Amino acid sequence: MRFRMLRPAAATAGLAATLLACVTPAAAAGHRAAPPRGTVTAAGPRLVAGDQGRSRQGGAGPRCVTILAATGRTRASTPPRQRAGTGHATTYTVTVTGTTITGQPAGARSGQVFLFNADDSARFDNPVRSVLPFSHGTATFHVPAGHYWAVGDFIRQRPAHKTYDEYLDVLPQFTVRGKTTVRLTARLATSRVQAVLPRPAVPQDTLFQLIRSAAAGPPVSVSWIEAGNGPGSPEPALYVSPTAARPTAGRLATVTVEHLGTAAFPQDSRYVYGLAYQSTGTIPAQRRVVHQAALATAHQRYYSDIGSWGLATTLPTFPVENRVCPVGGALFWGLHFPRRQTMYLSAGPAVSWQTQYIQNVAQDYSGGQVTAPRAFVPGQRVTQSLGGYPLHPAPDVRLGDIAGLPPTQVSAGRTGNTLGLAMTAFSDSAPGDLGQGTFPPLKAAASYQIDQNGTKIAGGTVPKFYGTFAEAATLSPSPSVIRFRLDTSEGAKLGPLSRATRTVWTWRSAPGRGARPPAGWTCPPGGAAGRPCAVQPMMTLRYHVTGLRLDGSAAPGQQVVRVLAGHIQLARAARVTRAAVAVSFDGGKTWRAARITGRHGSYAAVFTAPAGARVTLRTSAADAAGGSVTETITNAYRTGA
Fold first, then answer.
1. Using only C-alpha atoms, what is the Rg of the chain?
2. Which of 59, 108, 325, 636 is the most exposed place for a label (fewest CB within 10 A)?
3. Residue 65 CA to chain centroid, in angstroms?
C-alpha cells in the first residue's frame, strides 16, 4: 500500500496542478509500504495520491498512466518518460485555443489543456508535452499524425465565496493530418456535478475520472478531486461538457464520485452520502436525482481504545477502473475516534466500496483497518465494525465475486514443495478486514517459526514489520505435519488493548497435484495467477465480545465471548471438533478456564471479570483432520470501572 500525500491548497491557489503517477499493480506478496507522512490539521481533507490500498492482490496488471488534477501545486512529480521514436517521426503543429467561462482568452492561471494520442498512447503520453497551460488563449503541441483527444481545464476564481468554479471541456476525438487547430471553451461545460438528495446534505468532496483507452498502448486516466476547507470555504463547483458521440479509436469511460453530508466535514455530519456512477462510450449529464430506496445503509462503527484524531475514507471501485487503471488518489477526512457514523452508499453489482481508517495521525498514520471491497444491493442495511476488539492476525478474504477486482492471495498455499504464508496482524474479526499497519516512529515487531514433523525449517525475526506477514519455506515432498507460530507486537502508544499476540497453527500437508485456486485468487509466494496451488487447511478464529463498547470496554461481571472456529477461505474444511477458552486478568501470569457451550465451530465462552480488568484471552480449537489453532491475545479487551 503506497501513498504520497499532498497538502490541499486554499481555494484561491490558482489553476489546478497536475501530478503524474505511473501505476503498475504489483505482483504481490509482500509487505505494504509505509503510508504518508506529513502534517494533518483538524480542518480539511488530506489528498493522497498513488496506489490505492488493497490487500496483497496478486497478478501483474496493465501499465497505466494516471494524471491526478488537484488544486494547488504538487510537491514532486514523476520525471518525464522518453519514448523511442517520438522525436524522429514527422510532427504537425496542433494549436488549441481556449476561452474561459466569461469568453476571455485563457491564460496560465485560468486554463490548461491535456492532449493524448488515441491510436497508441505510447506515441504521445509524456506529461511535459501532453499537459500545457494556455498563454493568451492558445497552447501549441507538436505531434505525429493520427487521432487525438483533449480536455480543456478552466478555472474561475470566486474570492468573495472563498472558492472557485472548474470547467472541463472534453473533446473525445479529433484527427491530425497536418497543421490543425481545435477549440476548447469553458462555456461547453454546462453540466454541473450535482446530486439531488432525499435528505438534506451539502457537498464534501467530488471526484471526476476520465479514462481514455487508446487503440494500442496503456490507458490514460485523468482525475479531478474537489474539496472545500470548511463552511467558510465551500467545495468548488465542477462542470463537465456532456458528449453524444462515441470515439472510434479506443474507448472512453468516466467515473463520478460524490460525498455529501449534513455538514461540510464528515466529523460534524450525522450521516454521509457516498454516490458513485460509471459511464462508457459517452459523457452523460452530471446532475443525478437520488432515491433513498436505491441506496444501501452502512452503519460504520470505528473502535479505538484511546481518544484519537485520525483519518477515514470510503471509496468506490468500478470494473472499468480495475481493468485499466486505479484512480490514483483519494481524499481522507479527519475524524475523532472512537465514533459512529451512518453512510448511504450507491448500491448495485457494478460498484464495490472499501473503507480505510487510520486510527491515530499523531502516531504517524498507524492503527486502524482496511475492509475488503464489498458490493451492496439497494435497500441493504449492514453494520461494519472496524477495529472491534480483540485484534489478532487474520487471513485474506474475498467477499463475493465482484467483476474486475484484482486477485486476492491465498493466506496459506503449497506450490509443489514451497509453502507460502500470508497474514495481517492487528486485524478485527470481520471477514475481509485487515489491520491498516503500524509505522515509524512507532515500532511493530514479529517473529515466526515453521516446523515440519517437529523440525524447524524456517523462522526468525521479520525485518521492517509494519503488520503484514508474508514468508515462504521449502518442505520435503512427503506428507507431514506443519506447525506455524507467529508472534506479533506493536507500540502501546496506540492504546493498551490487543497489542501483543501469539498464534500457533498445525495441519497436515501434502503436495497438491494439479490443484489450482479458482479465478480471482493467486497462491504465494509471488501471487502469480494460474500457478498450481494446494490451499492449506489452516484453521481460523474470530471473536465477538457481547456488549463491547467502541472504546474496547465491556461491563464488568458476566462476560460472553463468542468464538467462531473455521478454516481459511478455499481450504477443504474438516469438521471442527472442540474449542476451549482460558482467561487471565494479570497479563497471562495466572489463568482460569471459561465455560464453553456450542459445537461445530460456533461457541460461547462464559466467565466473570472484575471491574477495571484487562482481559487476556487464550483460545484453542481443533478439527477432525488433525489441525489445530491456539491463540493468545494479551489485554484483548477491558472491563469498565
1. 26
2. 108
3. 19
